[in-house]
Design a protein that fits this description.
The complex is a heterodimer of chains A (325) and B (454). Chain A is an all-alpha fold and 325 residues long. Helices cover 70% and strands 0% of the residues of chain A. Chain A has 15 helices and no strands. Chain A has helices at residues 2-29, 33-41, 48-58, 74-77, 80-85, 102-137, 142-155, 159-173, 189-219, 222-229, 234-245, 247-255, 266-272, 277-286, 290-318. Chain A is globular. The relative contact order of chain A is 0.12. Chain B is mostly helical and 454 residues long. Chain B is 67% helix and 5% strand. Chain B has 15 helices and 5 strands. Chain B starts with a strand and ends in a 6-residue tail after the last helix. Classes of the chains: A mainly alpha (325), B mainly alpha (454). At the A-B interface, helix 1, helix 2, helix 7, helix 8 and helix 14 of A face helix 8, helix 9, helix 12, helix 13 and helix 14 of B.
Chain lengths: 325, 454
C-alpha cells in the first residue's frame, strides 16, 4: 500500500513537469515578456524605459532558460524559467501585480472557498443520488419519464441563469439573504446559504441523470435478477445491493473532485462576492495578472493528481477485491 | 462585394462535409440504419425541426458582404460600405439600424428613462420621450394594443395557412416514408411558425424584445447570437475530431511507447483545470492580437479570428475525452480476428486503421460530436462572462448576459435582454440535448439488443 502510494507520487512528477512546461511555453514563449509589458502598460505609455522597468519589477528581465552572462549554476538559476516556473514546485508563487505574496493570499482565501464548496459537494451528492434512486425505483413509469425530462431541462439552463435568477428572487424580491458579501466566522452562513443552494440546484440535472444511468446499468445485471428471484423486496434490492455495487463508478466521479474543492467555484464566488480562490482566479484573469493565473494552473494540476490518487485509494475501501500492489 | 471571413468558410465546409456524409450514408444501408433509428424517435424529429430553424438563422448569418454605396455617376468606380453585413441582416430588414437612444421595454412606445423634452413653446418638461422607431407608425399611443393584436393575428393566420398548405402538400411524401414521426415534426413546425411569424411581423413596427443599453433591438441581437453559438459548437469539434481520433486510435492500435507518450500527453493536459487552461491560452491570444494589430485589418476580421482562435483553443483542450474513449475501443478491436487476419495478409497499418478500425469506432465519434455541442454552447456564455470568451464586439449569448447582468439592480428592472438570451439559449441547448440523446440511443450498439433497450 505505502509503496503503491509512493510510486504514484513519483508518477506525478513527470506530469507536473509537463504542466510546468506547458504553462512556461504559454506564458513566455508564445508571447515575449516585451509583448506582455506592452499590453499591460497600454498603448500610450509604451517606451523602451517603461518596458524595461515593468520587466525589472517583475523579474522578467532575465533570459528565458540560459543565462550566459552569469557564472556557475547562475547560468541556470538566474533565468525566467527557474525563477518563475521551477519555483512553483516548492509552492513559491512570487508576488501578484499588487505586490502581495500569492501564497499568503491563497492560504487566506482557501477557507471561504471551502466553506462554500464542501456543503455544495456533500449536499449535491446526497440530493443527486436520492433523486437518481427515486427515478431508478420508478423506472419506465410516467414518474421516471417526468424526472428525466426535468433533468434534461435543468441541465439545459446555463449556470449563469441559476445564479442571476436566484439572486434576483431570493435576495432582491424576497429580501431573505444579502445579495453579496462575506463575513468571518459563523456570520458567513447567511452569505453562503444562497450560493450553496444554487450550486446544488444547478448540478441536479446532469448529476441525477448520470447516477440514474449508473443505477439502471447495475440493475440489468444477473445478481439483481437473483436477488429478485429469491424474493427480496424491490427497496432491499435497490438500497442494499444496487447502491453498494454502484459505489465504484460513483466514487470514480466524486472522489476525484474532492481536492479540487480547494479551488472554489469561479462563478458563484465572483457573483456573490465571496473572497475565495475562485473569485481570486477570476479577478486575476480579468486583470491579466499572469503570475496568479500561472500559480492557479499549477495548484489545480497538483490537486487533480491528488484526486486521482485518492480515487484509487478509495476503491480499496469499497471493493475488497481491489488490491493496490 | 462578398467578404470572406475564415469562420464562414469553415462553417460552409462543414455543411458540405455533412451533406457528403449524408449522401454517402444513403447509399450504404448499414450506415443509414442507425440514423433511421434516430429519426424514428419523436423527440429527435421535434428537436431536429427546431435545430434546423436555428441552423437556417446561423447559416444566413454566415454569408457576409459589403453593400454597394449609391454614389457617383454611371462611370464612377463602385464604392463599398465599410460595414460588413450578412444575409440575415438583409432578411430582417432594417432591424439592424433601427436603434433607439437607450433601453426600452418590449413593445414600448416610450423610452425607459425620463429625459428633458423641448416643447414647441420654448418650455421643457421631464418625461419619457417617444421612441424613434418603436410604435412610430401609430397615430396615438392608445392604439398600440389593437395594432399589436391585429398584426399578430394576421401573421398568425398567415402562418397557419402556410403550415396547413405545407402539411397538405407534403402528406404524400410523408406517407411514402413510414417509420418517421412526421406528425410530431409537423406539429413542432407549427409551433415554431406560430411563434416566429408574429415576432417577425411585429418587429417591423416595434421592438418585440425591447432594446438594450445602446438602444439596439434585442430580438436582432438574439438572432445574431445564434451564429456565434453554432460556430463555437461545431468548429470546436472540427478541431477536436481529427486530433482526438488520430491520437486515440494510434494509442490503442500501436500500444507500446506510442501509447505511453500519448497517455502522458493527455494526462498532463487533463490535469490542468479546463477553465484555467482556456483562460491562460485566451489571455496569451489577447496579448498576441494586441501587439500585432497589423495582422487584423478590420474589426470584423479581428473579432472573427478571435472566435476562430477560441474554437481552436477549446478544441485543443477538449480532445482528451474523445482520445481516451477511442483508445479503449481500439485496444479491444486490434485483438479481433479480422484485424489479426489483415495483419497476416500484410495489410499496412494505415490501411487497417482506415478501413477496419475507423469505421468501427465511427459511432463513438458521432455520439461524442453531438453530445459535446450543447456543453460548448453553455461554455461560451460562461467564458464570455469570465472575460476569456468571444471578442466584446461579437454578438453572443455570453456578451448579452454579461451586458444585461448589471441592469438587474435598476428600478424598474431591465429584464428583457436577459429573458431573451435565456429563452433563445435554453431552447437551443435543450433541443441539442434531446437530439444528442436520440443519436446516442440510435448508435449505441448496447441499446440495439432486445429492440429498444430500457
Amino acid at each position: 500500500m505505502l509503496s503503491y502510494i509512493l510510486r504514484r507520487i513519483l508518477y506525478a512528477i513527470p506530469i507536473l513537469v509537463g504542466v510546468n512546461l506547458i504553462t512556461f511555453a504559454l506564458f513566455f514563449v508564445v508571447n515575449t515578456p516585451d509583448d506582455m509589458a506592452r499590453m499591460q502598460l497600454g498603448a500610450k505609455r509604451v517606451t523602451p524605459e517603461a518596458i524595461a522597468k515593468w520587466k525589472a519589477e517583475r523579474g522578467y528581465d532575465r533570459p528565458l532558460v540560459w543565462n550566459a552572462a552569469a557564472a556557475g549554476t547562475g547560468r541556470l538559476t538566474q533565468t525566467i524559467f527557474f525563477e518563475k516556473s521551477a519555483r512553483l514546485f516548492v509552492f513559491d508563487f512570487g508576488a501578484a501585480e499588487d505586490r502581495r505574496d500569492i501564497a499568503t493570499e491563497i492560504r487566506a482565501r482557501m477557507g471561504p472557498s471551502l466553506a462554500l464548496a464542501i456543503p455544495v459537494f456533500l449536499v449535491g451528492l446526497a440530493v443527486n443520488i436520492t433523486f437518481a434512486l427515486g427515478m431508478a425505483f420508478f423506472r419506465a413509469s410516467a414518474l421516471d419519464f417526468a424526472g428525466v425530462v426535468l433533468c434534461v431541462a435543468m441541465m439545459s439552463i446555463s449556470t449563469l441563469f441559476y445564479i442571476i435568477g436566484g439572486q434576483y428572487l431570493v435576495s432582491k424580491l424576497w429580501h431573505l439573504v444579502p445579495i453579496s458579501g462575506y463575513d468571518a466566522g459563523l456570520d458567513a452562513a447567511k452569505f453562503l446559504v444562497l450560493p450553496a443552494a444554487i450550486g446544488v440546484l444547478s448540478g441536479i440535472g446532469s448529476g441525477s441523470r448520470w447516477y440514474r444511468t449508473l443505477f439502471l446499468e447495475e440493475m440489468g445485471k444477473d445478481y439483481v435478477r437473483t436477488a429478485r428471484a429469491k424474493g427480496l423486496a424491490e427497496t432491499a434490492v435497490l438500497f442494499r445491493h444496487v447502491l453498494k455495487n454502484a459505489m465504484i463508478p460513483i466514487l470514480t466521479g466524486a472522489v476525484v473532485v474532492i481536492p479540487l474543492l480547494f479551488m472554489g467555484s469561479l462563478l458563484s464566488e465572483s457573483f456573490f462576492g465571496i473572497p475565495g480562490l475562485g473569485s481570486y482566479t477570476i479577478e486575476a484573469i480579468q486583470g491579466q495578472d499572469f503570475a496568479v493565473v500561472r500559480a492557479m494552473v499549477f495548484i489545480g494540476s497538483v490537486l487533480y493528481i491528488a484526486g486521482l490518487l485518492l480515487t484509487d485509494l478509495s476503491y480499496t475501501l469499497v471493493d475488497p477485491r481491489v488490491r493496490l500492489e | 462585394m462578398p467578404v470572406i471571413l475564415v469562420t464562414d468558410v469553415l462553417v460552409w465546409l462543414l455543411v458540405a462535409a455533412a451533406a457528403g456524409y449524408a449522401y454517402y450514408c444513403r447509399r450504404h444501408d448499414h450506415l443509414a440504419a442507425p440514423w433511421r433509428r434516430v429519426f424514428a424517435s419523436r423527440a429527435a424529429m421535434v428537436s431536429l425541426v427546431v435545430l434546423c430553424a436555428y441552423l437556417a438563422a446561423g447559416l444566413a448569418d454566415s454569408l457576409h458582404f459589403r453593400a454597394r454605396l449609391e454614389s457617383g455617376g454611371p462611370g464612377a468606380p463602385a464604392a463599398y460600405s465599410n460595414e460588413v453585413m450578412s444575409l440575415l441582416d438583409v432578411a430582417v430588414g432594417d432591424l439592424r439600424t433601427r436603434s433607439e437612444k437607450t433601453y426600452s421595454a418590449p413593445f414600448a412606445t416610450r423610452l425607459y428613462a425620463k429625459e428633458l423634452i423641448e416643447l414647441p413653446g420654448g418650455k421643457s418638461v421631464r418625461d419619457y420621450p417617444r421612441l424613434r422607431f418603436g410604435g412610430a407608425h401609430l397615430k396615438t399611443e392608445a392604439d398600440r394594443g389593437a395594432d399589436v393584436a391585429a398584426k399578430a393575428l394576421a401573421a398568425l393566420a398567415a402562418a397557419v395557412a402556410v403550415w396547413g398548405a405545407l402539411g397538405w402538400a407534403l402528406r404524400g411524401f410523408a406517407r411514402s416514408r413510414p417509420g418517421v414521426p412526421w406528425r410530431a415534426a409537423w406539429l413542432a413546425l407549427g409551433a415554431l411558425l406560430a411563434l416566429a411569424a408574429p415576432a417577425f411581423a411585429l418587429s417591423g413596427g416595434y421592438h418585440v424584445l425591447g432594446t438594450d443599453k445602446v438602444g439596439q433591438d434585442v430580438f436582432y441581437l438574439s438572432l445574431k447570437s445564434i451564429r456565434t453559438s453554432l460556430v463555437i459548437g461545431t468548429l470546436t469539434t472540427l478541431v477536436m475530431l481529427p486530433l482526438g481520433a488520430a491520437v486515440g486510435i494510434m494509442a490503442g492500435y500501436f500500444k507500446g511507447w506510442v501509447d505511453d507518450v500519448i497517455q502522458y500527453a493527455y494526462t498532463t493536459l487533463n490535469s490542468i483545470p479546463a477553465v484555467l487552461l482556456i483562460a491562460a491560452s485566451v489571455l496569451m491570444m489577447q496579448v498576441y492580437i494586441d501587439t500585432h494589430p497589423e495582422l487584423f485589418p478590420t474589426t470584423a476580421q479581428r473579432a472573427d479570428l478571435r472566435l476562430l482562435f477560441l474554437c481552436v483553443i477549446l478544441g485543443l483542450t477538449s480532445w482528451t475525452g474523445l482520445a481516451r474513449l477511442l483508445r479503449g475501443e481500439s485496444l479491444k478491436l486490434r485483438e479481433l480476428e479480422y484485424i489479426q487476419a489483415a495483419h497476416a495478409f500484410g495489410v499496412s497499418h494505415a490501411r487497417i486503421i482506415g478501413r477496419h478500425i475507423l469505421p468501427n469506432v465511427m459511432h463513438i465519434i458521432i455520439i461524442s460530436l453531438v453530445m459535446d455541442f450543447s456543453g460548448l454552447v453553455l461554455a461560451e456564455a460562461v467564458l464570455s462572462y469570465v472575460g476569456v470568451g468571444v471578442d466584446p464586439s461579437t454578438t453572443s449569448f455570453g456578451t448579452m448576459i454579461n451586458n444585461a447582468r448589471l441592469e438587474m439592480a435598476r428600478e424598474p428592472m431591465v429584464w428583457w435582454a436577459l429573458a431573451a438570451a435565456f429563452w433563445f439559449m435554453f431552447v437551443l441547448v435543450l433541443v441539442a440535448n434531446l437530439f444528442a440523446d436520440a443519436v446516442r440511443d440510435g448508435f449505441d450498439p448496447r441499446v440495439r439488443v432486445g429492440g429498444g433497450g430500457a
